[in-house]
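We emphasize that the prediction below concerns an isolated chain of 301 residues; any contacts that depend on oligomerization or on bound cofactors are therefore not represented. The input was used exactly as deposited, without trimming of termini.
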Amino acid sequence: MTRPINRVRILALDIDGTTIRPDGTVSKRVQQAIQTAREAGVQVVLCTGRAFHTGVGPLASSIGLTVAREGEAEPQAIVNNGGASVDLRTEHVRWERLIPEGHVGNLLEAIVGVGATPLVEQAPSDGGKMFTWADHVAHPAAKLFAHAWMRIDDIVAVGPEVLAHVAVRTGWMGACGDYLTTQRAHEALVRLAGSHPEFDVFWSADWLAPGDPNHVAGIRPLGVNKSHGLATFAAEFGTDLSACVAIGDEMNDFEMLRDVGFGIAMGQAPDSLKSVAKAITSSNTEDGVAEAIARWVLPFA
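Result of the prediction step, given as a token string:
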């Protein structure tokens, strides 16, 4: 397919590696393309792995998304990889999906029990920071993945007791380490999830080579990903994913690009993401979002 099947009503934009350039800025060309799409009646929404407090609000404001045009939905951002939605004007959490509190202790025990370093994402309504152990005991993978997904230095190093307290309200927990350690963690989490089908479990070995020194296995509420968050938003807007175009560059965009009516991968995206996209645009250093809007959004708005 080289064009959307349905009229494009919603454009979902990942932030890092997609809307912004490596220096954290949005080019004038991309800003103008986003505004042109909105003028054409397309609802534009940020759909990011970031927690809201990691610069989502200022970015949305800089490209005009905090003020709704006539006929648009309430200004909001889908954050925490589809685990929550935040009102861009009040900065209040509109909804969030968390791991049921009764299971958190067993999950954390399973992660620690195989020798992995736990990485816990605080509930968005509690602040949305990431917590792990201090550097001298934590595996480097914890900081690597926290930085990759949060994009700022927002990790809090704590002891086991504090971590267990924070983890009571969480939307995502990770087990960090090398390939073999996270393999054991993944197996342990799968066993727990098997008796509690309200969980999704993933492992970085799906996109990283075994020889990579840093891996992560993670668990989250069933079905929570960017596709879930975008579908919730689309329903509020009176439509569904078939009327959405989504643009992303990393594996946390996989489900979203797969499930929308027309998924577009950035030029620098990994091949495993490009495999589910219906089109490939230029990289974020080449204004790929602006190119995608011109080719696959405006003509079908």
